[in-house]
DNA sequence: AGCACTGATGTCAGGGACTGTCATCGCGTA
DNA sequence: TACGCGATGACAGTCCCTGACATCAGTGCT
């Protein structure tokens, strides 16, 4: 192997992130992304299902880290603590804060990209629900714990990439979790 | 007014729901939807921003009912109980169960439609967060309560439209809420 | 060497979503 | 009557995305 430049997918992803940042998502065509990566539009669509997917290549690793942490948590742990373990495990596979901020800025700039982000999160929630069920957690409790975990993740993650924030992601996730507990105990 | 048939938007929505149910979302073109409603494709896009939006016309009424209930809840109520009031208020603006099942079946049949459903829910969550903040709930607590409320809504709603289910939506929402409380108190 | 085979890419044609622009037409109003 | 307004139609065009076929370097077999 090696007739063409290697790392085709990564080159496309980098080109896309650059162009989306330079001119915006709508003002960038798939043909331009492919050209910057030294490829053709047709080849782009052989690596990514659509124009948005190029920004979401890491979702699979995220799912794997989360569900593995859930599966490996001690059998005695309560569902919400299993969630906590999964959240901390997620933090390990994230890029550095600057990259996360750049990507988050692009994704937040266009509703189509937000939609994709949301369905990735929902897919993750479904996988976590399944992992919890596999531990014996009842159906509805598993679903609610997973959704609540996504809420904690969202809040903690957004705090992590906020401009002035200094603390690290695991700490912020733990803090958001205890805030959720306080809120839901309030009634 | 009255030079053309009235209720253009509703005719388009009905035609779309029919066609999506008959042949599926992908196998239906916007031109076909417009033709069944006695209009042209160009006119469709003057009433709905894209092919998916025609299924989500009720989102605005939902947001209004929810945020009004939140705003009108007694000042002494805890955030999570305010959420409960909002959830019950939502139930009032829903169509009958059969229609909801039909629409849910179409939306669930294609990822693009699921994406749109998710961003509508996220928009609703943001509006509820804002309504809670307006009541004096701290930022993060408001966001977490809103997200948790969406989780409760999702679980309760899906239970409501499940094939064998007999109970009514408000009861199922209340039940899901108490289950969430039980889960988050478990750690 | 000669050969077929494989796999990633290029090329081309085309459908369908969506937009900009201008024309049309019935109605209200001066 | 003349004029403007507002919803719609007609038409051209861009871009997203797909199917079909050709190309071409490497691999293994003979």
UniProtKB/TrEMBL annotation, chains A, B:
Organism the protein comes from: Streptomyces fuscichromogenes
GO molecular-function terms, A-Z: DNA-binding transcription factor activity; transcription cis-regulatory region binding
UniProt KW keywords: DNA-binding, Transcription, Transcription regulation
Transcription in keyword set: yes
Record's protein name: TetR family transcriptional regulator
Gene3D superfamilies (UniProt xref): Tetracycline Repressor, domain 2
Record domain HTH tetR-type: where: 6-66
DNA-binding interval(s): 29-48
Pfam family, one: TetR_N
């Amino acid at each position: 192997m090696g007739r063409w430049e290697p790392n085709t997918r990564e080159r496309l992803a980098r080109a896309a992130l650059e162009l989306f940042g330079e001119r915006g998502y709508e003002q960038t065509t798939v043909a331009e992304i492919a050209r910057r990566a030294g490829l053709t539009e047709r080849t782009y669509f052989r690596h990514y299902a659509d124009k948005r997917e190029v920004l979401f290549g890491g979702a699979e690793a995220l799912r794997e880290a989360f569900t593995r942490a859930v599966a490996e948590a001690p059998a005695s742990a309560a569902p919400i603590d299993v969630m906590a373990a999964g959240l901390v495990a997620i933090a390990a596979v994230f890029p550095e804060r600057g990259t996360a901020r750049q990507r988050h800025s692009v994704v937040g700039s266009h509703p189509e990209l937000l939609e994709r982000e949301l369905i990735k999160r929902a897919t993750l929630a479904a996988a976590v629900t399944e992992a919890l069920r596999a531990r014996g957690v009842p159906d509805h409790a598993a679903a609610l714990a997973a959704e609540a975990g996504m809420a904690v993740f969202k809040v903690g993650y957004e705090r992590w990439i906020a401009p002035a924030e200094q603390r690290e992601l695991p700490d912020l996730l733990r803090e958001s979790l205890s805030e959720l507990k306080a809120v839901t105990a309030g009634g």
